[in-house]
Amino acid sequence: MYITADEHMPPEHLYYQEINSKDGNYYRRWASVFGPSMSELIDRILKSSKHEEQAFNACAGILHRVKAIPKGIAEEAARKCIEMNSCRYSTYRQVLKKMECDEHPESSPESLPSHENIRGKDYYK
Question: pTM of whole model > 0.90?
Answer without folding.
Answer: no
